[in-house]
Amino acid sequence: MCLTCHQREINRQNSLNKNAQGIVRIGLTRYHVFMKTIYSRIGKRFFDMAIVVPALVILSPLLFCIAVLVRMQLGSPVLFRQVRPGLRGQPFTICKFRTMTEERDAQGRLLPDKERLTRFGRILRAASIDELPELFNVFKGNMSLVGPRPLRMEYLPLYSSEQARRHEVRPGITGWAQVNGRNATDWPMRLFQDVWYVDNHNFRLDMKILVLTVLKVFRREGISAEGHATMPPFKGER
Fold first, then answer.
1. Whole-number pLDDT of residue 30
2. CB within 10 Å: which end of the chain, N or C, has fewer?
3. What pLDDT shows up at residue 23?
4. Per residue in 77-107, pLDDT tens?
Protein backbone atom coordinates (compact mmCIF):
# COMPACT_ATOMS: atom_id res chain seq x y z
CA MET A 1 0.00 0.00 0.00
CA CYS A 2 1.40 3.40 -0.92
CA LEU A 3 2.12 5.93 1.80
CA THR A 4 -0.73 8.21 0.69
CA CYS A 5 -3.24 5.34 0.69
CA HIS A 6 -2.00 4.23 4.08
CA GLN A 7 -2.51 7.74 5.49
CA ARG A 8 -6.03 7.87 4.02
CA GLU A 9 -6.87 4.58 5.71
CA ILE A 10 -5.61 5.90 9.05
CA ASN A 11 -7.70 9.07 8.65
CA ARG A 12 -10.76 6.96 7.79
CA GLN A 13 -10.30 4.78 10.87
CA ASN A 14 -9.86 7.84 13.08
CA SER A 15 -13.04 9.32 11.66
CA LEU A 16 -14.94 6.10 12.35
CA ASN A 17 -13.59 5.98 15.89
CA LYS A 18 -14.67 9.57 16.56
CA ASN A 19 -18.15 8.85 15.22
CA ALA A 20 -18.39 5.72 17.36
CA GLN A 21 -17.29 7.64 20.46
CA GLY A 22 -19.88 10.32 19.69
CA ILE A 23 -22.62 7.69 19.42
CA VAL A 24 -21.51 6.18 22.75
CA ARG A 25 -21.58 9.60 24.41
CA ILE A 26 -25.06 10.31 23.04
CA GLY A 27 -26.17 6.86 24.17
CA LEU A 28 -24.82 7.40 27.68
CA THR A 29 -26.46 10.83 27.87
CA ARG A 30 -29.82 9.39 26.83
CA TYR A 31 -29.36 6.54 29.30
CA HIS A 32 -28.64 8.94 32.16
CA VAL A 33 -31.66 11.09 31.23
CA PHE A 34 -33.81 7.96 31.08
CA MET A 35 -32.60 6.75 34.48
CA LYS A 36 -33.12 10.19 36.02
CA THR A 37 -36.67 10.29 34.65
CA ILE A 38 -37.46 6.82 36.02
CA TYR A 39 -36.05 7.78 39.43
CA SER A 40 -37.95 11.10 39.49
CA ARG A 41 -41.29 9.57 38.52
CA ILE A 42 -41.18 6.21 40.32
CA GLY A 43 -37.98 5.49 42.22
CA LYS A 44 -37.93 8.64 44.36
CA ARG A 45 -41.43 8.01 45.73
CA PHE A 46 -40.62 4.36 46.40
CA PHE A 47 -37.41 5.44 48.15
CA ASP A 48 -39.38 7.91 50.32
CA MET A 49 -41.96 5.36 51.38
CA ALA A 50 -39.35 2.68 52.08
CA ILE A 51 -37.80 5.00 54.67
CA VAL A 52 -40.81 6.96 55.97
CA VAL A 53 -43.13 4.05 56.82
CA PRO A 54 -40.65 2.28 59.15
CA ALA A 55 -39.44 5.65 60.48
CA LEU A 56 -42.96 6.63 61.55
CA VAL A 57 -43.40 3.31 63.32
CA ILE A 58 -40.04 3.50 65.10
CA LEU A 59 -40.31 7.20 65.97
CA SER A 60 -43.96 7.16 67.10
CA PRO A 61 -43.03 7.03 70.85
CA LEU A 62 -40.63 9.97 70.36
CA LEU A 63 -43.26 11.93 68.41
CA PHE A 64 -45.76 11.37 71.22
CA CYS A 65 -43.30 12.49 73.90
CA ILE A 66 -42.34 15.62 71.97
CA ALA A 67 -46.01 16.44 71.43
CA VAL A 68 -46.63 16.20 75.20
CA LEU A 69 -43.63 18.45 75.93
CA VAL A 70 -44.77 21.04 73.39
CA ARG A 71 -48.24 21.01 74.96
CA MET A 72 -46.73 21.56 78.41
CA GLN A 73 -44.28 24.26 77.30
CA LEU A 74 -46.26 26.18 74.70
CA GLY A 75 -49.86 25.08 75.11
CA SER A 76 -52.22 24.24 72.30
CA PRO A 77 -52.02 23.70 69.37
CA VAL A 78 -49.06 21.33 69.42
CA LEU A 79 -48.47 21.55 65.67
CA PHE A 80 -47.61 24.58 63.59
CA ARG A 81 -49.52 24.45 60.31
CA GLN A 82 -48.92 26.71 57.34
CA VAL A 83 -49.79 26.63 53.65
CA ARG A 84 -46.67 26.28 51.50
CA PRO A 85 -46.09 25.80 47.74
CA GLY A 86 -45.33 22.24 46.68
CA LEU A 87 -44.78 20.51 43.35
CA ARG A 88 -45.50 22.97 40.50
CA GLY A 89 -46.31 25.58 43.14
CA GLN A 90 -49.50 23.83 44.26
CA PRO A 91 -50.36 24.70 47.89
CA PHE A 92 -50.32 22.17 50.69
CA THR A 93 -50.32 22.40 54.49
CA ILE A 94 -46.98 21.72 56.14
CA CYS A 95 -46.86 20.45 59.74
CA LYS A 96 -44.14 21.06 62.33
CA PHE A 97 -43.90 21.03 66.09
CA ARG A 98 -44.47 24.51 67.48
CA THR A 99 -41.37 26.35 68.66
CA MET A 100 -42.79 29.87 69.18
CA THR A 101 -45.33 31.57 71.38
CA GLU A 102 -48.29 33.57 70.06
CA GLU A 103 -47.22 36.82 71.74
CA ARG A 104 -48.49 40.00 70.08
CA ASP A 105 -47.87 43.73 70.37
CA ALA A 106 -50.37 46.39 71.45
CA GLN A 107 -51.85 46.46 67.93
CA GLY A 108 -52.47 42.72 67.96
CA ARG A 109 -49.65 41.90 65.55
CA LEU A 110 -47.39 38.92 66.15
CA LEU A 111 -44.00 39.85 67.56
CA PRO A 112 -40.90 39.08 65.43
CA ASP A 113 -39.90 35.41 65.28
CA LYS A 114 -36.74 36.05 67.27
CA GLU A 115 -38.76 37.37 70.21
CA ARG A 116 -41.33 34.56 70.14
CA LEU A 117 -38.85 31.70 69.83
CA THR A 118 -38.59 30.02 73.23
CA ARG A 119 -35.60 28.29 74.79
CA PHE A 120 -37.41 24.98 74.38
CA GLY A 121 -38.11 25.87 70.76
CA ARG A 122 -34.43 26.60 70.14
CA ILE A 123 -33.55 23.13 71.41
CA LEU A 124 -36.08 21.55 69.02
CA ARG A 125 -34.74 23.59 66.10
CA ALA A 126 -31.09 22.95 66.92
CA ALA A 127 -31.75 19.19 66.72
CA SER A 128 -34.23 19.61 63.81
CA ILE A 129 -36.80 17.74 65.93
CA ASP A 130 -39.45 20.33 65.02
CA GLU A 131 -39.30 18.99 61.44
CA LEU A 132 -40.30 15.41 62.33
CA PRO A 133 -44.07 15.86 61.68
CA GLU A 134 -43.14 16.56 58.05
CA LEU A 135 -42.69 12.80 57.74
CA PHE A 136 -46.50 12.71 57.53
CA ASN A 137 -46.32 15.19 54.64
CA VAL A 138 -43.92 12.81 52.89
CA PHE A 139 -46.25 9.89 53.60
CA LYS A 140 -49.17 11.79 52.04
CA GLY A 141 -47.08 12.67 48.98
CA ASN A 142 -46.96 16.44 49.54
CA MET A 143 -43.22 16.32 50.17
CA SER A 144 -40.18 14.16 49.60
CA LEU A 145 -37.37 13.32 52.01
CA VAL A 146 -34.96 15.29 49.81
CA GLY A 147 -35.76 18.36 47.75
CA PRO A 148 -35.84 22.16 47.94
CA ARG A 149 -37.33 23.35 51.22
CA PRO A 150 -40.95 24.59 50.88
CA LEU A 151 -40.92 28.34 51.44
CA ARG A 152 -43.76 30.85 51.75
CA MET A 153 -46.61 31.27 49.28
CA GLU A 154 -45.97 35.01 49.05
CA TYR A 155 -42.50 34.34 47.60
CA LEU A 156 -43.90 32.77 44.42
CA PRO A 157 -44.29 36.02 42.40
CA LEU A 158 -40.85 37.21 43.58
CA TYR A 159 -38.81 34.43 41.97
CA SER A 160 -37.05 34.87 38.66
CA SER A 161 -38.04 32.35 35.98
CA GLU A 162 -34.92 30.34 36.79
CA GLN A 163 -35.47 30.40 40.55
CA ALA A 164 -39.09 29.30 40.06
CA ARG A 165 -37.77 26.01 38.63
CA ARG A 166 -37.20 24.87 42.23
CA HIS A 167 -40.86 23.80 42.13
CA GLU A 168 -40.28 21.26 39.36
CA VAL A 169 -39.77 18.60 42.05
CA ARG A 170 -41.51 17.94 45.36
CA PRO A 171 -40.16 20.00 48.26
CA GLY A 172 -38.10 18.13 50.81
CA ILE A 173 -37.48 17.86 54.53
CA THR A 174 -33.82 18.36 53.69
CA GLY A 175 -32.04 19.35 50.51
CA TRP A 176 -28.84 20.34 48.75
CA ALA A 177 -29.06 23.90 50.11
CA GLN A 178 -29.57 22.57 53.65
CA VAL A 179 -26.30 20.62 53.61
CA ASN A 180 -24.42 23.50 51.96
CA GLY A 181 -24.96 26.31 54.42
CA ARG A 182 -28.65 25.95 55.33
CA ASN A 183 -29.95 29.27 56.71
CA ALA A 184 -26.46 30.77 56.94
CA THR A 185 -26.29 31.25 53.14
CA ASP A 186 -27.85 34.20 51.32
CA TRP A 187 -31.00 33.87 49.23
CA PRO A 188 -29.41 33.94 45.73
CA MET A 189 -27.04 31.09 46.60
CA ARG A 190 -29.73 29.09 48.37
CA LEU A 191 -32.11 29.32 45.40
CA PHE A 192 -29.28 28.55 42.98
CA GLN A 193 -28.54 25.38 44.96
CA ASP A 194 -32.22 24.41 44.84
CA VAL A 195 -32.30 24.67 41.04
CA TRP A 196 -28.98 22.80 40.79
CA TYR A 197 -30.61 19.95 42.71
CA VAL A 198 -33.57 19.92 40.32
CA ASP A 199 -31.19 19.44 37.38
CA ASN A 200 -28.90 16.90 39.03
CA HIS A 201 -30.89 14.82 41.51
CA ASN A 202 -30.56 11.07 41.50
CA PHE A 203 -30.52 8.21 44.01
CA ARG A 204 -26.83 8.60 44.87
CA LEU A 205 -27.17 12.35 45.46
CA ASP A 206 -30.25 11.85 47.66
CA MET A 207 -28.39 9.31 49.79
CA LYS A 208 -25.44 11.69 50.10
CA ILE A 209 -27.72 14.53 51.20
CA LEU A 210 -29.39 12.35 53.86
CA VAL A 211 -26.02 11.32 55.31
CA LEU A 212 -24.74 14.92 55.28
CA THR A 213 -27.98 16.06 56.94
CA VAL A 214 -27.35 13.76 59.89
CA LEU A 215 -23.84 15.18 60.25
CA LYS A 216 -25.13 18.76 60.02
CA VAL A 217 -27.73 18.10 62.71
CA PHE A 218 -25.11 16.73 65.10
CA ARG A 219 -22.81 19.67 64.39
CA ARG A 220 -25.72 22.17 64.64
CA GLU A 221 -24.47 24.14 61.64
CA GLY A 222 -26.35 26.85 59.76
CA ILE A 223 -29.42 26.83 62.01
CA SER A 224 -30.11 30.54 61.51
CA ALA A 225 -28.84 33.63 59.76
CA GLU A 226 -27.12 36.18 61.97
CA GLY A 227 -29.69 38.27 63.82
CA HIS A 228 -32.64 36.11 62.74
CA ALA A 229 -34.55 33.14 64.14
CA THR A 230 -34.18 31.47 60.74
CA MET A 231 -33.57 33.70 57.70
CA PRO A 232 -34.54 37.22 56.69
CA PRO A 233 -37.60 37.42 54.40
CA PHE A 234 -36.98 36.94 50.67
CA LYS A 235 -37.36 40.27 48.85
CA GLY A 236 -36.97 39.04 45.29
CA GLU A 237 -34.38 39.92 42.68
CA ARG A 238 -32.40 43.08 43.31
1. 58
2. C
3. 39
4. 999 999 999 999 999 999 999 999 888 877 8
Task: Give the whole-angstrom CA distance, residue 204 versus residue 117.
Answer: 36
Question: Taking the model in full, what pTM does it have?
Answer: 0.80
Give the Cα separation of 74 and 121 in Å (integer): 9
Phi, psi values for residue 100, rounded to 5°? -125, 155
Q: Are 162 and 195 in contact (CB under 8 A)?
A: yes
Q: Are the C-beta atoms of 143 and 171 separated by less than 8 Å?
A: yes
Backbone torsions φ then ψ of 16, nearest 5 degrees: -65, -40
Q: Which of 219, 211, 149 is nearest to 178 (CA)?
A: 149
HEC string for the chain:
CCHHHHHHHHHHHHHHHHHHHHHHHHHHHHHHHHHHHHHHHHHHHHHHHHHHHHHHHHHHHHHHHHHHHHHHHHCCCCEEEEEEECHHHCEEEEEEECCECCCECCCCCECCHHHHECHHHHHHHHCCHHHCCHHHHHHHCCCEEECCCCCCHHHHHHCCCCHHHHHHCCCEEECCCCCCCHHHCCHHHHHHHHHHHHHHCCHHHHHHHHHHHHHHHHHCCCCCCCCCCCCCCCCCCC
Q: Which residue has the higher pLDDT, 127 or 5?
A: 127
